[in-house]
């Protein structure tokens, strides 16, 4: 591929941006190799959305004494409710689409109130056309399921709560 021909590169980047919007992702990074000395590294990210999702509100509360009191109070009140901070949170090990059942119409892997054993599949995450089984990291009871079937998830996003 000629380095001076950028038309196909622009189309590829536009396709990645469409994929980002379509699956509500915050970032996509790809490396295309066309030979030994010809590669294309592309990172497409939503700059305005990534920061609020990745940076919770407590940082301004600690550093900005002049912040409005109602906003600071609500941020402090919401902190204990954050499912990602729950000790029983099972988080996503990857970016992808989460499914609560092995195939459409099949029963869900787990439901609220189910007892699970360590290593038992609790859901699957599709990433790059590969279905990845997500095992329970420990035995316990499913207290909350925090995602909907078919919803996009990001790395570290809380999926469910085990106690």
UniProtKB/TrEMBL annotation:
Q: Does Signal show up as a keyword for this record?
A: no
Extract one GO cellular component term from the record.
acetyl-CoA carboxylase complex
Question: Where does the record place the Lipoyl-binding domain?
Answer: 87-163
Which intervals of the chain form a coiled coil? none
Q: Transmembrane stretches, by residue range?
A: none
GO biological process: any one? fatty acid biosynthetic process
Q: Which UniProt keywords apply?
A: Biotin, Fatty acid biosynthesis, Fatty acid metabolism, Lipid biosynthesis, Lipid metabolism
Molecular-function annotations in GO: acetyl-CoA carboxylase activity
**Alphabetized PANTHER family for the sequence:** OXALOACETATE DECARBOXYLASE ALPHA CHAIN (PTHR45266)
Protein name, entry field: Biotin carboxyl carrier protein of acetyl-CoA carboxylase
Q: Which organism is it from?
A: Halovulum marinum
Gene it is expressed from:
accB
């Amino acid at each position: 591929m000629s380095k001076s021909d950028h038309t196909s590169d622009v189309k590829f980047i536009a396709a990645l941006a469409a994929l980002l919007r379509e699956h509500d992702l915050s970032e996509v990074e790809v490396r295309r190799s066309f030979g030994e000395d010809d590669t294309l590294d592309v990172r497409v990210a939503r700059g305005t959305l990534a920061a609020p999702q990745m940076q919770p509100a407590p940082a301004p509360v600690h550093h900005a004494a002049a912040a409005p009191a109602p906003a600071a109070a609500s941020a402090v009140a919401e902190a204990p409710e954050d499912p990602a901070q729950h000790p029983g949170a099972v988080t996503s090990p990857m970016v992808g689409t989460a499914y609560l059942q092995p195939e459409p119409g099949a029963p869900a892997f787990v439901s609220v109130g189910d007892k699970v054993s360590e290593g038992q599949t609790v859901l699957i995450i599709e990433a790059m056309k590969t279905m990845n089984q997500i095992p329970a990291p420990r035995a316990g009871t499913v207290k909350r399921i925090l995602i909907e079937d078919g919803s996009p998830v990001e790395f570290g996003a809380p999926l469910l709560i085990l106690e």
